[in-house]
C-alpha cells in the first residue's frame, strides 16, 4: 500500500512524465486480498430457460407465441416509433394474416376460369413476392434493415387491410347499392392510410435521408394493389 | 518553352480521343498524371467544335467517376451500383423524359453515365398496375350506365399487363443495343450507349403513359384518342432525340429505318394496351336469356284482344 502511494505521489509531482510510466513501479503487496467468484449470471439463466421449454406443456408454448404475435398486432394498431417489431421479428403474424386474407379473397368456383377475381395462390404470391421485392429494393437503395425484419414489418402492417376485408364481407351481406359501395370505399381508404402510416413509422428510419421517398413509394403501391383487390371483391 | 507546350497539347488531344472511343476505359491506375492534365485539356479543347465538346465532357466525367474498382458480378454491391440514385435525381430524370427538347440528349444530360434500374423497374410496375386498375374501373363505370354489361374483376389482366410491359422494356432495348453495337464500325466518333442506358431511356419514356391511362377513364372516344396520340408523341420524341446523335453518322437508310422501327414499336404498345384494356365490353349472358320471354306474350295476347 505504502509503495503504491509513493509511486502515485511521484506521478503527481512530475507531470511531464509520459502516461502510465509509473505503473511498472506499483507492486501489489501480499496483504491486499484479491479473491472472489467470477460468474456470468446470464448463462445459468439461459440454461434454465432452455431446459424448461422442453418440459413445459404445449399450451404454454403456443400461448407464448400467440402473445408475442398479439403484442405486435397492438403495435401495428397503435403505431408509434418503437423497435419492437424490428427487434423481435417473427413471421407467424404475416403468415396468419396472409392466409386469412387470401382465403377471404378467393373467388368461388362457380365463376368461369377467365374472368374472375384472384385465386388463393395469386393473392399469396402477390403478397409474398411484393414484400420480398420491396425489401430487396430498400436494401439496394442502401437501407440498413435486415431482410426478415422488413418482411416482418410489411406482413404485420397488412392487419388493417385484413380488418377492412372482414368489414367489407359483412357489409356485402346487406343489400347492394351505391351506399353499400360508399361504405366499403370509406373503410378501405381509411385502413389503407392506416397501413401506410404504420409501415412508414417502422421503416422510415432505416433508410438514408435523401432516398426515403424512393423506398416508401413501393410500399404505397403494394398496399394500393391489396386495397384494390379488397374493394373489387364481389361475392357470386 | 513553345516546343514543350506543343508537345503537351498533342498529348492531351490523343488522350481525349482515346477516351471518347472507349468511354468505359479506366484512366486512373497507372497514368495518375493524366487525370489533372486531362481536366485542363477539356477546357482548352472545348473551344473547338461541338462534337469535340461532347466527347471532352464525356471523358471528363468518366475520368472523374472511374475511381473505385467495380465489384464482381456475384456480389450484392454490384447491383447496388444500379440503385445509386437520390429522390431528386429520379424526379429530375422523369421531368427530362416528359419534356423532350431537340438539343438535350436524355442520356448525356440527365443520365450522365450513371444509369439506374430503380426508375425503369418501378415505372413499369406502376404502369402495369395502373393499366389493370383503370381497365377494371372502366368496366365498373360502364356497367353503371348500361346494366347489360357483365362485370367481373378480370384479375388475369394484371399478369398480362406486367408481362407485356416488362418484356417490352427489356427485349426491345436488347435488340436495339445489339443492332447499334453491330453498326459501331460505321461510326467514327461517338460511341454507342451501354445496355443499361438504353433500358433507362425506354423505362423513363414510359412514364408519360401513366397519367394518360388515368385520363382514359373519361368515356369520350375522341378525347381518349387525343390523349393517346399526345402521350405517344411525347414518348416517341424523347426516344428519337435520345438516339439521334448515335444514329446520325450512319447511312441515311439505316438511320431512317431504325428510328421508324422504334416509333412503330412504341405505337404498337400504346394501341395494344388501349384495345386490350379499354375497348371490349363483355355482355352479360343472363340478360340475353331474359330477352326471350318478352317476345312470347304478344302473339298469345292477340287472340285475347280480338
TrEMBL record, chain A:
Annotated Gene Ontology cellular component terms: Golgi membrane; trans-Golgi network
GO biological process: endoplasmic reticulum to Golgi vesicle-mediated transport
Compartmental location: Golgi apparatus membrane; Membrane
Pfam families: Yip1
TM spans (from-to): 91-108, 120-141, 147-174, 181-203, 215-234
Chief location category: Golgi
Topological relation to the membrane, as annotated: Multi-pass membrane protein
Occurrences of domain Yip1 (ranges): 76-229
Keywords: Membrane, Transmembrane, Transmembrane helix
Stated family: Belongs to the YIP1 family.
Name the record gives this protein: Protein YIPF
Organism: Suricata suricatta (Meerkat)
Phylogenetic classification of the source organism: Eukaryota, Metazoa, Chordata, Craniata, Vertebrata
Gene from which the chain derives: YIPF6
TrEMBL record, chain B:
Domain Yip1 residues, every copy: 98-270
UniProt GO MF annotations: small GTPase binding
GO cellular component: Golgi membrane
Transmembrane segments: 117-139, 159-180, 201-219, 225-246, 253-277
A family per Pfam: Yip1
Record GO biological process: vesicle-mediated transport
InterPro entries hit by this protein: Yip1_dom (IPR006977), Yip5/YIPF1/YIPF2 (IPR039765)
Keyword Ribonucleoprotein carried by entry: no
Compartment(s) of residence: Golgi apparatus membrane; Golgi apparatus, cis-Golgi network membrane
Keywords: Membrane, Transmembrane, Transmembrane helix
Highest taxon listed in the record's lineage: Eukaryota
Recorded topology in the membrane: Multi-pass membrane protein
Residue segments, region Disordered: 29-62
Family: Belongs to the YIP1 family.
PANTHER family per UniProt: PROTEIN YIPF (PTHR12822), PROTEIN YIPF2 (PTHR12822:SF3)
Record-given protein name: Protein YIPF
Amino acid at each position: 500500500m505504502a509503495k503504491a502511494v509513493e509511486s502515485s505521489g511521484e506521478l503527481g509531482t512530475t507531470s511531464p512524465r509520459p502516461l502510465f510510466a509509473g505503473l511498472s513501479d506499483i507492486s501489489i503487496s501480499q496483504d491486499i486480498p484479491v479473491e472472489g467468484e467470477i460468474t456470468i449470471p446470464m448463462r445459468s439463466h439461459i440454461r434454465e430457460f432452455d431446459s424448461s421449454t422442453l418440459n413445459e406443456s404445449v399450451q404454454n408454448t403456443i400461448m407464448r407465441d400467440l402473445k408475442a404475435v398479439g403484442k405486435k398486432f397492438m403495435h401495428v394498431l397503435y403505431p408509434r416509433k418503437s423497435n419492437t417489431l424490428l427487434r423481435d421479428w417473427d413471421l407467424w403474424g404475416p403468415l396468419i394474416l396472409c392466409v386469412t386474407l387470401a382465403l377471404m379473397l378467393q373467388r368461388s368456383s362457380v365463376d368461369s376460369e377467365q374472368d374472375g377475381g384472384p385465386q388463393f395462390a395469386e393473392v399469396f404470391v402477390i403478397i409474398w413476392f411484393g414484400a420480398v421485392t420491396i425489401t430487396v429494393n430498400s436494401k439496394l437503395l442502401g437501407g440498413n434493415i435486415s431482410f426478415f425484419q422488413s418482411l416482418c414489418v410489411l406482413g404485420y402492417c397488412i392487419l388493417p387491410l385484413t380488418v377492412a376485408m372482414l368489414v367489407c364481407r359483412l357489409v356485402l351481406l346487406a343489400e347492394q347499392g351505391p351506399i353499400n359501395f360508399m361504405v366499403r370505399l370509406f373503410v378501405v381508404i381509411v385502413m389503407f392510410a392506416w397501413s401506410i402510416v404504420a409501415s412508414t413509422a417502422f421503416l422510415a428510419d432505416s433508410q438514408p435521408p435523401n432516398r426515403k421517398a424512393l423506398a416508401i413509394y413501393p410500399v404505397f403501391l403494394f398496399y394500393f394493389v391489396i386495397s384494390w383487390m379488397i374493394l373489387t371483391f364481389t361475392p357470386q | 518553352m513553345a516546343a514543350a507546350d506543343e508537345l503537351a497539347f498533342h498529348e492531351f488531344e490523343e488522350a481525349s480521343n482515346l477516351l471518347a472511343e472507349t468511354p468505359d476505359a479506366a484512366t486512373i491506375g497507372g497514368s495518375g498524371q493524366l487525370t489533372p492534365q486531362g481536366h485542363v485539356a477539356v477546357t482548352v479543347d472545348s473551344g473547338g467544335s461541338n462534337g469535340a465538346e461532347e466527347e471532352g465532357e464525356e471523358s471528363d466525367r468518366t475520368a472523374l467517376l472511374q475511381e473505385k474498382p467495380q465489384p464482381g458480378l456475384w456480389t450484392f454491391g454490384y447491383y447496388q451500383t444500379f440503385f445509386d440514385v437520390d429522390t431528386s435525381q429520379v424526379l429530375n430524370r422523369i421531368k427530362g423524359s416528359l419534356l423532350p427538347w431537340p438539343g438535350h440528349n436524355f442520356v448525356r444530360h440527365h443520365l450522365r453515365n450513371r444509369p439506374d434500374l430503380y426508375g425503369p423497374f418501378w415505372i413499369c410496375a406502376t404502369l402495369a398496375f395502373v393499366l389493370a386498375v383503370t381497365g377494371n374501373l372502366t368496366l365498373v363505370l360502364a356497367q353503371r350506365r348500361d346494366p347489360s354489361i357483365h362485370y367481373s374483376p378480370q384479375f388475369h389482366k394484371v399478369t398480362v399487363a406486367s408481362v407485356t410491359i416488362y418484356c417490352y422494356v427489356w427485349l426491345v432495348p436488347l435488340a436495339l443495343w445489339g443492332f447499334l453495337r453491330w453498326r459501331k464500325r460505321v461510326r467514327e466518333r461517338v460511341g454507342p450507349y451501354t445496355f443499361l442506358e438504353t433500358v433507362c431511356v425506354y423505362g423513363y419514356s414510359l412514364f408519360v403513359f401513366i397519367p394518360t391511362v388515368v385520363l382514359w377513364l373519361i368515356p369520350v372516344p375522341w378525347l381518349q384518342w387525343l390523349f393517346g396520340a399526345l402521350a405517344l408523341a411525347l414518348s416517341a420524341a424523347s426516344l428519337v432525340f435520345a438516339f439521334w446523335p448515335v444514329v446520325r453518322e450512319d447511312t441515311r437508310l439505316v438511320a431512317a429505318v431504325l428510328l421508324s422501327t422504334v416509333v412503330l414499336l412504341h405505337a404498337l404498345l400504346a394501341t395494344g394496351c388501349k384495345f386490350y384494356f379499354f375497348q371490349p365490353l363483355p355482355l352479360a349472358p343472363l340478360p340475353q336469356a331474359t330477352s326471350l320471354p318478352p317476345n312470347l306474350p304478344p302473339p298469345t295476347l292477340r287472340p285475347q284482344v280480338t
